[in-house]
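Input C-alpha cells:
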C-alpha cells in the first residue's frame, strides 16, 4: 500500500426481476431458538446491490439470496476512497483503493432475491460514517431473512466531515425516503424486490448518531415498528429535544465507550417506553459496532500508520479512530457474534417471527466476558409486536 493510500485511510478513519409472491416466513418455522442461534450465518446466502433515492443519495441493499445463485461468485467490497471529497481524491495516485469486504455478492448480473417476503431493516450510520460501515451485521441480518437498506447521510457522512458539500436532507428524512423507496420496489412489477419486502414489518437500526436518528424516526413514522440504537440514542444521550417513541426498543452499548458513555446510554434507556431492553458489552468501545477497527489492523491501526508518516491527528478526533480498537478494549471481532445474536434475536422476537425471547435469555452465560448485563422491561399487556 502506498504512503498516500495509507494516509488517506488514516484521515478517513480519524475523521470518522420479476418474481412470484411467496410465503412470508423469513426462516424455517422449525428453528429452535437459543442464546447463540444467530451467531452463525443464517439459511440464506447474501446478495447486494446499490440503489438511489430520488435525491440521488446512494442506498446499499443487502438481501436474502439462494446459495445456488451466489455459487462461484466473489464477495463484493467497498472502497473508502469513494467517500473522500474530490479535493482529497485528487491527491491520490490513479487506482488508489482502501477496500474492505461488503458482505454480499453482486456478480456480473445482480443476484436474484430469494423467494419469500422479508421484513425490512433500515440502517443509519454514525457521524463521519458511511452506508457500508457495519457490513458484518448488515450481511448477517440478510442471511437470516431480512432486507437491509442503508442510505448515506450527506448531512453528516464521511464526505461531509472531511470537507465535502453539505447535504440538503436530514438523516431522518433519508431514512423515511429509504422506506418509501423499498415500498415502491416491492410494489413495482418490474422490480427484483416485487413482493419480496414485507412492509408490515419494518425496523430501524443505527450506530452512534444513527442510534439517535432511528429513535427519532420511530417516533414520527408509523411504518416503523421498532428501533435499535447501538452506542447511540436520542433523549438522554445525543438529542435532549427529541420525542421518545411509544414503540419497542433496544439499546446496546460497550462499557468502555468514551464517545457516548455508558451512563448516557443508561439515561436514554430510562427515558424509553416499555417494552424495552438494554444490553452491555463488557470492555467494548464505541467502534465495536462497525468495521472500522479492522481496516489497517494488520499494520498496527490507521493512527499508527499516520504517526509513522508524521501526520498530526488532532486529539479531539482520536476517539473516532481508536475507541474500541485496541487493548485493553474487547476486540471487535470477538464481540461481533454477540452483537449479531442480540440484534437478530430482538428483531425476530419483536416482529413476531419468534414466539418467545429465548434468543435473548442467558446471554451473559452464553457470552462470558463479553455480555456483562442485560435488562428488559415489558408491560404485562404487551404483545410480541408491542
Amino acid at each position: 500500500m502506498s504512503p498516500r493510500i495509507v494516509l488517506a485511510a488514516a484521515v478517513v478513519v480519524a475523521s470518522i426481476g420479476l418474481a412470484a409472491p411467496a410465503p412470508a416466513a423469513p426462516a424455517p418455522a422449525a428453528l429452535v431458538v437459543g442464546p447463540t442461534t444467530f451467531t452463525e450465518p443464517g439459511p440464506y446466502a447474501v446478495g447486494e446491490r446499490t440503489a438511489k433515492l430520488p435525491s440521488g443519495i446512494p442506498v446499499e441493499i443487502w438481501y436474502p439470496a439462494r446459495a445456488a445463485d451466489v455459487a462461484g461468485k466473489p464477495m463484493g467490497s467497498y472502497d473508502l476512497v469513494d467517500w473522500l471529497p474530490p479535493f482529497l481524491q485528487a491527491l491520490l495516485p490513479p487506482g488508489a483503493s482502501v477496500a474492505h469486504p461488503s458482505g454480499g455478492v453482486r456478480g456480473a448480473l445482480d443476484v436474484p432475491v430469494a423467494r419469500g417476503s422479508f421484513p425490512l431493516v433500515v440502517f443509519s450510520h454514525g457521524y463521519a460514517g458511511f452506508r457500508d460501515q457495519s457490513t458484518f451485521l448488515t450481511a448477517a441480518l440478510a442471511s437470516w431473512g431480512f432486507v437491509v437498506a442503508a442510505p448515506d447521510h450527506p448531512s453528516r457522512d464521511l464526505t461531509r466531515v472531511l470537507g465535502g458539500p453539505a447535504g440538503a436532507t436530514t438523516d431522518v428524512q433519508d431514512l423515511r425516503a429509504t422506506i418509501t423507496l423499498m415500498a415502491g420496489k416491492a410494489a413495482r412489477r418490474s422490480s427484483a424486490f416485487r413482493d419480496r419486502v414485507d412492509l408490515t414489518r419494518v425496523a430501524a437500526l443505527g450506530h452512534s448518531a444513527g442510534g439517535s436518528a432511528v429513535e427519532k424516526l420511530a417516533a414520527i413514522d408509523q411504518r416503523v415498528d421498532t428501533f435499535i440504537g447501538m452506542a447511540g440514542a436520542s433523549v438522554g444521550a445525543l438529542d435532549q429535544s427529541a420525542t421518545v417513541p411509544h414503540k419497542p426498543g433496544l439499546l446496546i452499548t460497550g462499557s468502555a465507550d468514551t464517545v457516548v458513555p455508558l451512563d448516557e446510554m443508561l439515561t436514554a434507556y430510562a427515558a424509553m417506553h416499555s417494552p424495552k431492553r438494554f444490553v452491555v458489552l463488557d470492555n467494548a468501545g464505541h467502534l465495536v459496532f462497525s468495521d472500522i477497527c479492522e481496516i489497517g489492523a494488520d499494520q498496527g491501526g490507521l493512527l499508527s500508520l499516520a504517526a509513522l508518516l508524521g501526520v498530526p491527528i488532532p486529539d479531539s478526533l482520536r476517539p473516532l479512530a481508536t475507541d474500541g480498537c485496541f487493548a485493553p478494549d474487547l476486540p471487535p471481532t470477538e464481540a461481533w457474534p454477540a452483537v449479531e445474536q442480540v440484534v437478530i434475536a430482538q428483531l425476530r422476537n419483536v416482529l413476531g417471527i419468534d414466539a418467545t425471547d429465548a434468543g435473548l435469555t442467558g446471554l451473559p452465560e452464553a457470552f462470558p466476558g463479553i455480555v456483562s448485563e442485560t435488562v428488559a422491561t415489558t408491560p404485562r399487556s404487551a404483545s410480541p409486536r408491542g
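Residues 3-13+39-377 form a domain with the Rossmann fold fold (CATH 3.40.50.1820). The chain has 13 helices and eleven strands.
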